[in-house]
Design brief:
By secondary structure, the chain is of the alpha+beta class. The protein is 22% helix and 38% strand. It is built from 3 helices and 6 strands, in the order E-H-H-E-E-E-E-E-H. It has helices spanning 28-44, 49-53, 128-136; strands at residues 8-13, 57-68, 77-87, 91-99, 105-117, 122-123. Strands 1, 2, 3, 4, 5 and 6 form a 6-stranded antiparallel β-sheet that branches. A hairpin with a 3-residue loop joins strand 3 (77-87) and strand 4. The longest helix has 17 residues, at 28-44. The two termini are 19 Å apart.
C-alpha cells in the first residue's frame, strides 16, 4: 500500500542496446529503467545526486523484489511509474512498475533505497525535504 497518492511517471523507449538477440528487453535493464525513473523524480523535485553528494548524502539500493510479467520489445514506448510505499528514518521503499500503452503491467518491483553518509558509509536519516516532496507532490 502506497503511503501517498503521488505517482511519478517517466516515459522510455526500448532501444536496440536494451534487448537480447530476439529483440526482447534483457532482464537486468528493467533495473536501469527503475533507477532512471527514481533519478528523474529526484530532479523534478529540485534535487540532484551531485548536490546531495556535496552534502555527503548518497542513496544505495538495499533490496529489490522484482516480478517479470510480460516482455517488452525493441522500439516499445513504455511508462515507468514510481510511488512511495514505506518511509523509514534512513530508507524509502518505492513501489515501481513498467507499463505499456495499453496499461498492461510488464514488470513490477519493490525497491528499498537506503540513505547513507558517503564519507562514513553509514546509514543516515533521509532528508525531510525529499520525503515531503516525494509524498506530497502532484507529479
Amino acid at each position: 500500500m502506497d503511503i501517498s497518492e503521488t505517482v511519478f511517471e517517466f516515459p522510455i523507449t526500448v532501444y536496440y542496446e536494451d534487448t537480447d538477440v530476439g529483440g526482447m528487453v534483457y532482464h537486468a535493464n528493467y533495473l536501469k529503467y527503475f533507477e532512471r525513473c527514481r533519478s528523474e523524480w529526484l530532479i523534478q523535485i529540485g534535487m540532484t545526486h551531485s548536490s546531495l553528494r556535496e552534502q555527503n548524502i548518497s542513496f544505495v539500493v538495499r533490496h529489490v523484489d522484482m516480478d517479470f510479467l510480460q516482455g517488452a520489445y525493441i522500439e516499445d514506448c513504455l511508462i515507468v511509474r514510481a510511488s512511495i510505499a514505506i518511509v523509514k528514518k534512513a530508507s524509502l521503499t518505492f513501489c515501481q512498475e513498467i507499463v505499456n500503452p495499453a496499461g498492461d503491467i510488464l514488470c513490477k518491483a519493490m525497491v528499498k533505497v537506503a540513505c547513507i553518509d558517503s564519507e562514513k558509509m553509514k546509514p543516515r536519516a533521509f532528508p525531510q525535504k525529499i520525503i515531503m516532496e516525494f509524498t506530497q507532490s502532484d507529479r
